[in-house]
Design goal:
- It is a single chain.
- With 353 residues, the protein is an alpha+beta fold.
- The protein has helices spanning 77-80, 83-93, 130-141, 218-235, 255-272, 303-324, 338-342, and strands at 15-23, 26-34, 41-46, 53-54, 70-74, 98-102, 105-107, 112-114, 161-162, 165-166, 168-175, 181-188, 244-251, 284-293, 328-330, 333-335.
- It has a five-stranded mixed sheet. A five-stranded mixed sheet has the order 3-14-13-12-11. Strands 6-7 form a two-stranded antiparallel sheet.
- The protein is globular.
Length: 353
C-alpha cells in the first residue's frame, strides 16, 4: 500500500474544515467533512453505549436518502449537535441537498455525531453552536483539492481526552494496489486508554507497519505514571467520552457495502484503545464513498481490501491524534499529552506518523 500525504482529503473530492474556541471557559469545536457537490454514499455504525447523534437513521440502506453532502463531528455532547444546523443552512444557500424540484428547494441531510467534552474549558455551558458549524464548513469549502488536514487539538478534538491523556484529531490514508484510495479521520476521545500500562507504548503502535515497537525507557514510563496520577487526583472523576471516525474511499460502493465498511472500521478503534465501546462511550463511525472507481466486478471479495484498510487507517489515525495532542492547563483541569510525558520522538520510527 502506498501512502499519499496521509489525510482523509487524499480521497479525491473530500474537504475537511475545523472551527474551535478556547479560553473564556471554552475548549471545544467542530469538524466538518464536506463531500463533492452532488454528495457521496454514506453509512454509519454506532457501537458505543452512549451515542449523541443526528440524522443517522437517514443513512439506513432501507431508507430514502441516497447521498449526503457533509458529515459533522462535534464537541459539546448532545448540545453540540446544534452545530449541524449551521452546516445545513450553508448547504441550503449553496443549493446542495435532497432536491424538491429546484435548486432553491433542497433539504440538506447532515448526519452528525458528538463527543463529550463538556466543562473541559471550565464552563459547562461553553459548547459549539450553529455558528461553529458554519465556520467549520466554510473552512472546508475554502480548502483546495487534497489539502492537508490539521491534526491534534483542533475542531472536534479541541477538548478531547483518551483516558487520562489528551486526545484529538488524527488522519491517515493509503492507495491500494487496485488504485483505490482509502482514508480515515478520527476524533480520539475515548474512556479507555491508548497506552499499554506496563510499558507506556501506544497500543496502536503494535499494529503499525514500521517494524518492532520502540518502548519508552522504564524510568520515563514511571515518571509519566506519577505525573498522570497527580493530574488525575486534582481533576477529579474520570470524564465521559466517545470516539468518532469517518472512513472514506473513492470506490463505487452501495450503501450496504458502505455500512459494512463503517462496521469493520470499528476494529481499528479496538486495536488502539482498551477497553472500547463502553456504556459511557458513544463510538460512531461514518463511511463515505465518492464512487469514482469501480470495484473489480470479477472478484466477489474485492471489497475486502477496502474493509481491511479502513480499520488499519483508523488505528493509525488514533496514534497520530494522540501523538499530535498538546497538554492543557486551565480552569477545566490539567490534561497532559503523550508527547509531554514521553517525549516527542518516543516510539516514533520512520512511519510512526
Amino acid at each position: 500500500m502506498t501512502t499519499l500525504n496521509g489525510s482523509l482529503t487524499d480521497v479525491p473530492g473530500l474537504r475537511v474544515g475545523h472551527a474551535h474556541r478556547t479560553g473564556d471557559g471554552f475548549l471545544t469545536g467542530t469538524t466538518v467533512v464536506l463531500a463533492p457537490e452532488g454528495g457521496a454514499v454514506t453509512a454509519v455504525d454506532v457501537r458505543g453505549g452512549g451515542p449523541g447523534t443526528r440524522e443517522t437513521d437517514a443513512l439506513d440502506p432501507r431508507n430514502l436518502v441516497q447521498r449526503i453532502e457533509a458529515v459533522v463531528l462535534t464537541g459539546g455532547s448532545a448540545y453540540g449537535l446544534d452545530s449541524a444546523s449551521g452546516v445545513m443552512a450553508w448547504l441550503e444557500e449553496q443549493g446542495r441537498g435532497v432536491s424538491l424540484g429546484s435548486r432553491d428547494r433542497v433539504v440538506p441531510v447532515v448526519p452528525a455525531a458528538a463527543v463529550f467534552d463538556l466543562g473541559r474549558g471550565g464552563d459547562w455551558r461553553a459548547r459549539p453552536d450553529a455558528s461553529t458549524g458554519r465556520a467549520a464548513v466554510e473552512a472546508a469549502a475554502a480548502t483546495g483539492p487534497g489539502s492537508p488536514v490539521e491534526e491534534g487539538n483542533v475542531g472536534a478534538g479541541t477538548g478531547a481526552l483518551v483516558g487520562r491523556l489528551r486526545g484529538g484529531v488524527g488522519t491517515a490514508s493509503t492507495v491500494l494496489g487496485s488504485g483505490i484510495t482509502v482514508g480515515a479521520l478520527v476524533v480520539a476521545n475515548a474512556a479507555g486508554s491508548a497506552v499499554d500500562p506496563s510499558t507506556g507504548a501506544l497500543y496502536g503502535d503494535f499494529f503499525a507497519e514500521r517494524g518492532p515497537v520502540a518502548y519508552p525507557a522504564a524510568e520515563v514510563h514511571e515518571a509519566a505514571g506519577k505525573r498522570l496520577a497527580q493530574a488525575a487526583a486534582a481533576n477529579g472523576p474520570a470524564p465521559l467520552n466517545t470516539t468518532l471516525a469517518v472512513v472514506a474511499t473513492d470506490a463505487d460502493l452501495t450503501r450496504a457495502q458502505a455500512q459494512k465498511m463503517a462496521g469493520t472500521a470499528h476494529d481499528g478503534i479496538a486495536r488502539a484503545v482498551r477497553p472500547v465501546h463502553l456504556l459511557n462511550d458513544g463510538d460512531t463511525v461514518f463511511a463515505v464513498a465518492t464512487g469514482a472507481r469501480a470495484l473489480d466486478a470479477a472478484n466477489p471479495l474485492a471489497l475486502n481490501e477496502i474493509l481491511a484498510a479502513g480499520a488499519d487507517l483508523v488505528t493509525r489515525a488514533i496514534v497520530r491524534a494522540v501523538r499530535a495532542a498538546e497538554s492543557v492547563h486551565g480552569p477545566g483541569g490539567t490534561h497532559l499529552s503523550y508527547r509531554d510525558l514521553y517525549g516527542p520522538d518516543t516510539g516514533a520510527g520512520p512511519s510512526a506518523l
